[in-house]
Amino acid sequence: MASVKTKITRQKPDAARTTARNYEKALKNGVRMAGMMVRATAVQSITNGSPSGIIYEKYNPRRTHTASSPGNPPAADTGYLHSNIHFVLDSDGLGASVESRAYYSEALEFGTSRMQARPFLQPAIEENRPKIKQLMANLAKGAN
């Protein structure tokens, strides 16, 4: 004759709350890490990029500058652009943005009628997209 055994265990009342809290903490950590990765990649593309465009003299202060060619990240000159790239975490910690606050950022990222784009933010997002997906998947597994 077949038998069926059952066992009833009582779970702690706040086990579900603890699990939800741990998951949210892991998610917030993942959002923070993802934003910092994108910011770091954008800054690195500007500071470590290989200038490949025209060479010209700039004044105030006087210096020679090698510009980037269209489609490549802008070449660092004074450091103003990459020092004005900021990672901003949403107030709830569940979202973030990477912003460039240099007044000419939009012209570089998207181009103008007189200059082709030298994107640095969108390529940073695309480069990190697979890493971010994997990071979030790993965090989700670890929070369970």
Helix coverage percent of residues?
40-55%
Total of helices: 4
Order of helices and strands: HEEHEEHH
Provide the gyration radius in Å. Answer: 24 Å
Topology, please?
Blueprint: H1 15-47, E1 55-58, E2 63-66, H2 80-83, E3 85-89, E4 96-100, H3 105-110, H4 121-143
Characteristics of this structure?
elongated; two-stranded antiparallel sheet; 12% strand; alpha+beta; 144 residues
Textual characterization of the structure:
The chain is of the alpha+beta class and 144 residues long. The chain has one domain (18-143). The protein has four helices and four strands. It has helices at 15-47, 80-83, 105-110, 121-143, and strands at 55-58, 63-66, 85-89, 96-100. The strands form two sheets. The chain has a two-stranded antiparallel ribbon. A two-stranded antiparallel ribbon has the order 3-4. It is elongated. The two termini are 39 Å apart.
Task: Give a summary of the structure in a few sentences.
By secondary structure, the chain is α+β, with helices and mostly antiparallel strands. It has 4 helices and 4 strands, in the order αββαββαα.
